[in-house]
Amino acid sequence: MATFGVGIIGCGWVAEEYIKAFGKDGRAEVRALVSRSRSKPEAYRDRYGLDCAITSDHAEVLARTDIDIVVVCTPHDAHTEYVVAAANAGKHVIIEKPVALTMADVRRQQDAVRRAGVKTVVSFVLHWNPLLVTIDQLIRDGAFGKVFMVEVDYFHRIWMGPGHWLGTKRQGGTSMLAAGCHAVDALRWFARSEAVEVSAYETRTENPNEYVGTTSAVVKFADGTIGRTTSCFDARMPYVFNIGVYGTEGSLRNDMLYAPRIFPGQNAFAKLPCILPDSGDVSHHPFLGEVAHFLDCLTQDKEPFPNLDDAAKTMALCIAADRSAAEGRPVQLATV
Questions:
Q1: How far apart are CA 170 and CA 12, in angstroms?
Q2: For 305, phi and psi rounded to 5 degrees?
Q3: Among 61, 73, 11, 63, which residue's Cα sits nearest to residue 32?
Q4: Is beta strand 240-247 parallel, antiparallel or unpaired with respect to 251-253?
Q5: How far is CA 244 from CA 22, 36, 174, 263, in A?
Q6: Helices 103-116 and 308-327: angle between axes, nearest 10 degrees
Q7: Which of 80, 115, 128, 186 could form a disulfide bond with 105, CB atoms 3.0-4.6 angstroms apart?
Q8: Smallest Cα–Cα separation from 191: which of 218, 154, 217, 221?
Q9: Beta pairing partners, 232
Q10: Is residue 134 over pLDDT 90?
Q11: In whole angstroms, what is the distance from residue 306 CA to residue 125 CA?
């Protein structure tokens, strides 16, 4: 089996996790790093013993016939340029979250990917966290009966100093887009229904980011399920990724499970012994699982999940929540 060639566009902290993941998998190798400066990619090349080109010209990399996969992990507002270019060049694409900061840009990416017929995966990397994988399987197995309410929260004190792109509206976007989208993605995943309406509120503290740091939303799903999510950059507390799944036959609160349908006679919550999504450090995140899944899908000609089309629905819900909070009214997802 031929080895997949990988080009990475953007050489910030997340790029290193992809380098490590591809290196451990063995079915692909990083052959090019694209960056405006040379210091970071040269450091990665030397640290991981890469035999790769280093360039500031993404077109040079996209023209190479030995590059099959492009990883886009630039600042958020630049994703669309590179995703569209990669798709037009016939490359499969891994897209860092958020996909983009506007739905117009998301649609441009979708159009390019559909025309090219390439595969995508969006890096909602918690899809490969053991706790979330377990929750997904419990839902599949009917452990909760009918799930009627889901809660997922992202709490992380992200205060960027002056000049850092993540704290700006132009490149970081909003709290919900910049990082809360992880929680929104999990909310949709576990609700198993399409979001139709969202009502949200926001509050500002004295943080140095250009955008509001805390947004909380209630979501109505098509089948009547209720969702609730909060993205909070402001609270002085350790990183927390809260998950609640509530059903007619069982419930879950983070790693505490009550499911008498599976465990007859259970009379108290039981603790699930698995790795939790309890750190905001990207080195804690399961990029190896994401990369392995994508390579599996390429070799077996299967559709990855979450792909760009699924992630577009997460982006729409984030953008609708921000609009609802800003305008003080419920927003229909069909209008976004």
A1: 18
A2: -145, 130
A3: 61
A4: antiparallel
A5: 33, 42, 24, 19
A6: 170
A7: 80
A8: 221
A9: 155, 214
A10: yes
A11: 9
Which amino acid appears at position 53 of this protein? A
pLDDT tens profile 173-228: 999 999 999 999 999 999 999 999 999 999 989 899 999 999 999 999 999 999 99
Read off φ and ψ for residue 217, nearest 5 degrees: -135, 145
Name residue 303's amino acid: E
Distance, in Å, from the CA atom of 173 to the CA atom of 167, rounded to the nearest integer, reads 8
Strands 147-155 and 240-247: what pairing? antiparallel
Instruction: Tell me the β-bridge partners of 257.
Output: 252, 270
Alpha-carbon span 305 to 168, nearest angstrom: 30
> What are φ and ψ of residue 214, in 5° steps?
-135, 125
Helix (H) or strand (E) holding 139: helix 130-140
pTM value > 0.85: yes
> Are 18 and 72 a contacting pair, CB within 8 Å?
no
Q: Is the peptide bond before 130 cis (omega within 30 degrees of 0)?
A: no
Peptide bond into 277 cis (omega under 30): no
String of b and e for 258-288 (b: at least 16 CB within 10 Å)? bbebbeeeeeeeeebeeeebeebeeebbbbb
Distance between CA 12 and CA 52 in Å, rounded?
Answer: 17
Q: Would the pLDDT of 1 be above 80?
A: no
Q: What pLDDT was estimated at residue 127?
A: 98
Tokens, residue 287: 């990029």
41-99 pLDDT, tens digit each: 999 999 999 999 999 999 999 999 999 999 999 999 999 999 999 999 999 999 999 99
Residue 150 identity (one-letter amino acid): V
Backbone angles phi, psi at 311, to 5 degrees: -65, -30
End-to-end CA, the chain: 43
Residue among 228, 231, 212 at smallest CA distance from 220: 228
Cα-based angle 310, 315, 320 (whole degrees, multiple of 5): 130
